[in-house]
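Hi R.,

As promised on Friday, here is the backbone we talked about, encoded as structure tokens. Could you run it through your design pipeline when you get a chance and send me back a sequence?
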């Protein structure tokens, strides 16, 4: 019986490495052998996860993050491509409200790297901060708004791109198939976890749609905010792709290809898939969903909460709501319940 454990982070509670540590300890207590893999789709802590697969640091330096605080960041060399995790600067752990931050802190990074991971972001500005940093002016009553943020969107009535520089050559990893706008937009799906109310989401979608119209008119181009995968990082992939011409790649596929993990899946009879919350969005371009779709053995869910309407696993073991307060304890207990199943078999 060959067992593999695939662990993504439990957002807000445990890193992928911490999840692996808890499971490994319990497996060891019952003499259960398994191979353990931290996995990522390019989101928060993806740098550490890539490093656990043997990739090395390319460079380290300080940059201002979206909160205006200097932070030590690092890039990686992934098979001769320089990789940067955008969550290092615009991550969900920002101390400010989503309406008070933007993506402008990424502007200096974009010409220094070749691959950008976009998941795990708190930003909802769909890349307006970057556009401003590259010279596009967002104007209110004939006055340019310096470093515009989502709270400024209702006041923008004009766009000027006469000094706009679009010279970028970048691969962008999307951690979701969800679109920027539409019935199930990135704001509908991910807005609540970024602190947006239902009213906030509807108002913000209207403002984003209006600003896209202003940009289309100024640049004389057609934009499609309902395009697949345009909603990663609060719509950052929309702007990087459709306005700045960057290539958008599937984040999980990139990770699996670069690490060679996809080629190892057929070695295992049992796969244990670990995620903080598994729901329908997990199947929309997330790493656990991507692994699950390619795995041919018996699949088990071991994680925080299972919220999908359909059961995609042979069995489900979850920490429940209590796991948000005491994640290690409840993950340990859920792991022991999983072990009991193996012992019965």
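Update: got your reply. Pasting your designed sequence below so it's all in one thread:
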């Amino acid at each position: 019986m060959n067992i593999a454990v695939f662990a993504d982070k439990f957002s807000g509670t445990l890193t992928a490495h911490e999840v692996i540590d808890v499971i490994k300890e319990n497996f060891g207590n019952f003499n259960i052998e398994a191979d353990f893999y931290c996995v990522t789709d390019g989101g928060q802590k993806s740098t550490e996860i890539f490093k656990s697969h043997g990739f090395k640091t390319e460079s380290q330096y300080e940059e201002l993050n979206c909160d205006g605080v200097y932070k030590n960041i690092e890039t990686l060399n992934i098979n001769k491509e320089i990789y940067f995790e955008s969550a290092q600067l615009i991550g969900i752990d920002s101390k400010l409200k989503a309406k008070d931050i933007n993506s402008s802190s990424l502007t200096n990074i974009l010409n220094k790297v070749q691959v950008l991971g976009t998941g795990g972001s708190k930003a909802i500005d769909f890349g307006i901060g970057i556009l401003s940093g590259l010279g596009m002016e967002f104007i209110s009553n004939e006055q340019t708004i310096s470093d515009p943020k989502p709270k400024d969107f209702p006041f923008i009535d004009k766009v000027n791109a006469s000094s706009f520089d679009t010279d970028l050559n970048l691969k962008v990893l999307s951690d979701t198939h969800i679109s920027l706008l539409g019935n199930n937009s990135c704001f509908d799906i991910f807005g609540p976890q970024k602190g947006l109310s239902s009213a906030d989401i509807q108002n913000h979608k209207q403002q984003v749609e209006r600003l896209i119209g202003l940009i289309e008119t100024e640049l004389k181009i057609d934009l499609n905010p309902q395009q697949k995968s345009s909603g990663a990082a609060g719509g950052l992939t929309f702007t990087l792709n459709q306005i700045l011409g960057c290539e958008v790649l599937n984040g999980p596929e990139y990770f699996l290809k670069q690490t060679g993990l996809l080629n190892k899946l057929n070695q295992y009879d049992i796969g244990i898939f670990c995620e903080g919350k598994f729901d329908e969005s997990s199947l929309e371009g997330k790493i656990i969903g991507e692994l699950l779709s390619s795995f041919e053995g018996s699949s088990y869910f071991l994680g925080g909460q299972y919220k999908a309407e359909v059961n995609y696993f042979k069995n489900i073991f979850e920490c429940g709501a209590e796991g948000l307060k005491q994640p290690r304890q409840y993950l340990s207990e859920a792991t022991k319940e999983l072990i009991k199943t193996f012992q019965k078999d």
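One thing I noticed while checking it: The first strand starts at residue 3 and ends at 7.

Thanks again,
M.
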